[in-house]
């Protein structure tokens, strides 16, 4: 792949420092990997019902690591009743250098089903896998690797030139996996302390093993709970079945009405909100290779299942169109499948929202539709949906994106793809808002085989190294290209 801009930085002192730092990183990469293993041993599950002491321990271990590599003003921050955040900075690049705000999170998802893990979830284990050697374990990729990338890059500069060309502020969150509930108010409270010229958020995925990507669009997410009630109590299906309507069948009819024959959302008014694709977007998407066979393999689709289609191609569909998923249904349980008519049936319905869609309006339309179509006069209650997140997209032009393209090309040996992500990352919007719209670079080390949130999560070790090298060059390229427009000057009273 060819790129149109020069790969070498015009400032030879900066590129020399970056080259030395890269050499150091490569020589000491095993140490960085070891640090990651230590972090990933801590079961810092932020979900309710899990011991919060582990999340605190993980915050403390993160603080120790940041201090060790040369960050200053390291603090474990207890903000309201949130799991602890970790803050640290390095401001010795001085007022003439720009400032980057670095983000990652130290909390993790629950391990899931023990019997499906091939290695223990909280014993990080090196093993061959897709792309080469991988580190298996909960949090190895999502997102303790993100912490490592930030730490290793600063350490490499300090151990070689004795200084870093960029001022750094780092926020490591402790509640990302439960929706970043306090992030908005946290960023508001610390807005001044966190001012920066660019944000580097390390918690996303590459396009494939060894194929780097910058994420420039995210879908949002709304969810509602729906309950259909037919009876005040469950009754015998032989004695009563026939005249008495079954709430499970009624719920099934309601749910089936949510999509059309092709699996597209059929709730009136929802798809109409989506912002049409621009020519530039379509051009960018054409650069993304899509192979149906590989896609099917990666996701693990059963043979014979057909891909649902909407929009010009599957890439656009994943990143720029909404999708509907029913994440849970309950009436009685499998082990209690008795011959009875259940009193109620329940489901959670979620929609990934696309650019242009108003999240609360989407939830309201969904609610109104279900209330309208429920059959046989049964009671229906639809709740939730008020706290949905909107979709996010950024125009990937300007010096910060130039810096990222050059840095990632140096780290990975190929230019990053500009990708969207079908998922939702609640922390992106608050950051963009709190920092007054400074460019946000979403860079990550996951890949399609990482299985974050599932069992056997893993990190491709060679990509962690490449991500660290990219980060070193990113610090240098940002120092070279961005002028400190806000950052430090703003802090002077
Ligand atoms: Zn994450």
What is shown here, in short?
The protein has 15 helices and 18 strands. The chain is α+β, with helices and mostly antiparallel strands. Strand 1 (72-77) and strand 2 (85-90) form a beta hairpin.
The gross shape turns out to be: globular
**CATH class categorisation of the largest domain:** Alpha Beta
Number of domains: 2
What's the β-strand tally?
18
Query: Which small-molecule species are bound to the chains here?
Result: zinc ion
Query: Helix count, per DSSP?
Result: 15
The largest β sheet comes out as: 9 strands, mixed
- The second-level CATH architecture of the largest domain is 3-Layer(aba) Sandwich
User: Average pLDDT across residues?
Assistant: 92
Radius of gyration: 24 Å
Helicity, in percent?
A: 25-40%
CATH superfamily of the largest domain: Zn peptidases
Architecture overview:
The radius of gyration is 24 Å and the shape is globular. The chain is α+β, with helices and mostly antiparallel strands. Strands 1, 2, 3, 6, 7, 8, 15, 16 and 17 form a nine-stranded mixed β-sheet that branches. The protein has a four-stranded antiparallel β-sheet with strand order 11-13-9-14, with helices on one face. 48% of the residues are buried. It has two domains: 12-218 and 392-491, Zn peptidases (Aminopeptidase, 3-Layer(aba) Sandwich), CATH 3.40.630; 220-274 and 322-383, 2-Layer Sandwich (Alpha-Beta Plaits). A hairpin with a 2-residue loop joins strand 4 and strand 5. The longest helix has 21 residues, at 461-481. Helix 1 (12-27) crosses helix 4, helix 1 packs antiparallel against helix 14 and helix 3 (52-69) runs parallel beside helix 4. Helix content is 34%, strand content 20%. It binds zinc ion.
